[in-house]
Design goal:
Length: 415
């Protein structure tokens, strides 16, 4: 049954160790890697008389010489106290009460209060409330992995390690804090986070983590589809997406995210293409990868439906709808994203026909570029017979662009 549970047993074991005092390592991080806004937030909270640190993945990445994507902040100040310190801030969350300090429409910094080991769980064991505040020593053990349980004191320029995170970083190991079986039951998303960190950092998972994931992969089905959508973006929008995909498959986690998806050359080339675009700072959209992941399922469903439905368009449309509906039961997809996925699929048949009278309309279609890229990668992987079709549309774009450049009075449309 659900109720209030405690992780203080972990804390008590940790407290009884001979070296109960934390390790403090003086580190003068490269100022170019530090976020100026994060430093300002820490300094503001510190000047107000509170204990405050940079914490988690940003400290880990700084120690490895990597530029952190996110800077999280932990303090003994209550959320309401932090909120009063910043004009542009807001309180968010029910499960975890946090403060977002806003700097622009797209940028905010997250400030969390130290938490104790007291949590409220559902019947499944998943944490549903964690708003019991505590001390830094208690906050350490509520974190997931030891490499993410490091605190950086900007004032003293020291990394503070209560649990062995520095040792793990030096040995390129990933250990969970506490019993992996219990920690994954509390939050099954930790399993896919473990694989993401393993791939990103090229670290080795502990044997205990590997065993626990194999035994508890099905718990991922307890997570809301909306939350898994955000996690999937983190899994695949990076420079190592295909390696993550393979590891999800290896540990039987993939089927709990994409039960209709099976590995093929199209998925491999698409994930590698996305990674290369990210390396070159080019834009990417999750709609493209979701369309690739589900293309095989859409095709298989289409082959069945078209036996009864003579209209190719209607058969394609119905197959698309059914596959998307099945997918959102596992991972929630925004409407704008499912619309783009369906448009990309529906345009494949039109592109394959190469009808001269339709060239202008298709090139002017706002979904053309994504559909064209989709077609090109198909021709380079699972459908080599489409290479001439891909070349046709490559040439058509070139000729269309040339015509536009000679007609300055004609307003170019976005593609």
């Amino acid at each position: 049954m659900g109720g209030v549970q405690s992780r203080l047993s972990i804390f008590n074991i940790f407290r009884r160790k001979k070296n109960s005092k934390p390790v403090r390592k003086r580190v003068n991080f490269n100022k170019k890697l530090l976020d100026r806004d994060a430093v300002k937030v820490v300094q503001t909270i510190s000047k107000a008389g509170f204990e405050v640190y940079l914490v988690g993945g940003c400290v880990r990445d700084l120690l490895l010489g990597l530029k952190p994507k996110d800077f999280d902040i932990a303090t003994n100040a209550k959320p309401e106290q932090v909120n009063k310190l910043f004009k542009r801030s807001r309180l968010i969350g029910r499960r975890f009460r946090l403060v977002h300090v806003m700097f622009s429409a797209r940028k905010y910094l997250e400030v969390a209060t130290f938490r104790s080991g007291q949590v409220k769980t559902a019947k499944s064991g998943v944490i549903v409330r964690d708003n019991c505040y505590g001390k830094i020593e208690e906050d350490v053990v509520r974190r997931d992995f030891r490499i993410n349980a490091l605190y950086y004191d900007i004032n003293t320029e020291e990394v503070i390690d209560y649990i062995g995170g520095l040792t793990d970083i030096e040995s390129h190991q990933i250990h969970i804090i506490g019993d992996p079986m219990v920690r994954f039951e509390e939050d099954p998303v930790r399993m896919i986070r473990a694989l993401r960190f393993q791939t990103k950092l090229d670290f080795e998972l502990s044997d205990e983590i590997k065993t626990a994931i194999h035994q508890q992969a099905s718990l991922l089905s307890n997570i809301s589809p909306a939350r898994l959508y955000e996690e999937c973006i983190k899994l695949f929008h990076n420079e190592y997406g295909f390696k993550v995909f393979e590891r999800l498959e290896k540990y039987d986690l993939l089927k709990h995210l994409f039960k209709q998806t099976r590995k093929n050359d199209f998925i491999k080339i698409a994930l590698n293409n996305t990674s290369n675009r990210i390396k070159r700072n080019k834009p990417v959209t999750p709609a493209f990868l979701f369309a690739v992941f589900l293309w095989q399922a859409q095709n298989e469903r289409y082959q069945i439906i078209k036996k009864k439905e003579k209209s190719v368009y209607l058969a394609m449309s119905q197959a698309s709808e059914e596959v998307i509906i099945n997918q959102i039961k596992q991972v929630s997809l925004p409407r704008w994203l499912t619309a783009r996925i369906k448009d990309t699929w529906m345009m494949q048949n039109r592109l394959e026909k190469m009808q001269p009278k339709k060239i202008e309309d298709l090139l002017s279609n706002k979904g053309f570029r994504m559909a064209y890229d989709f077609l090109v990668l198909r021709s380079q992987s699972i459908n080599p017979e489409l290479k001439s079709v891909a070349e046709f549309w490559t040439k058509a774009q070139s000729e269309h662009s040339s015509l536009d450049s000679h007609t300055p009075h004609k307003k170019n449309r976005k593609r």
